[in-house]
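Morning run. Coffee first, then this:
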Amino acid sequence: MGDREGTLHPASDSPHPTPHSPLPTPDILVHDPWRPVPALGGHSIFPSGPYDRSSLDDRTDILTYTSAPLFEDLHLAGEIVSLICCVADTPSFDLCAVLSEVWPNGSVYNFSQGYIRISSGQDSSPVKISLQPTCMCIKQGNALRLSLSAACFPAYPINAGMGLPPGNTRLIDQQIITVTVYSGAIDLPTFCYLLLLNMTTAIVLNANQINTLDLSPALTVVQPWLEEGTIEAYEQTVQFQIDYPRELGDPRELSEIPEIRLWFIRLDAYYPWMPFLLDWKSGEIARYAAMLVPHQFHPKEGIQYNPEALEIFVMHKVFVMAIWLKEQGIEGRARLKSMAQMFGYELDDGLFDFLYF
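And here it is:
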């Protein structure tokens, strides 16, 4: 989404900034507590539902980013997340994000909305706004629009800007809030993306790729996510499909075959934070660990890891992923604690004081 063009580019052909790209011009959003942006439809106020918000989007305290008309129907199904790189001149501020369908006649009908309050001292780089899940089709010729504002009154109380609860402030004390929104810079990415329901991505391996230690099946899937800055959208979605022929009667599991284990060892050296992407619910993280940790198979209890080796594996992943998650601007404490719990370990909160969370 480039702020110069005010356009939501499809991810497949969006121009990616480079270190030599010109600095983008930030957009300025000024919130006046005495004339806040009013709520219109959506899920948080009565009457609810879609309404034509074309006149509302004309307000000077609403930023709008509109795509080009679609060349074909676009089907959307899933949870929507918007990452907004922004700063404000007050300790606390609000952001409201609304996604709408823009028709050729100029009508603008909302279909998903999210709201967040940034408290004093809370990390806001970027602001992550979860919008309502959706399942719909944007027709060919129509466009998508993201509208940003710093209020949605009276659906949500007005933020006084001082970092205090609404009941502890007076109207006379409320401040005018200026929010600066960035997008288009390589170090200030702003995105609006869809987390598909039940979405999985398969990395398919054949015997030749495994025997030659060819990582291209994984690189072609993961590397574009890194380059586009959308890696968080694919958390816990990756599964491996391994086609490795064995002789009839070979009792070995895939993780007991040296060639396959070696391929995964190389992959883990390339992407040591790979557990972030693995589909935990389907057991993919346990199978991945089996490729790297000595273990035995029990007919009833399944994988039984070597305890000392498993502890080293888990703590190594915690340390490596703590650094990587911080670099990506992704919350790490809850994720790392959950990953450790998958293997039967409890991480003390005091550990994270040393990991800079």
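Confidence is low (pLDDT under 50) at residues 1-20. Good start to the day.
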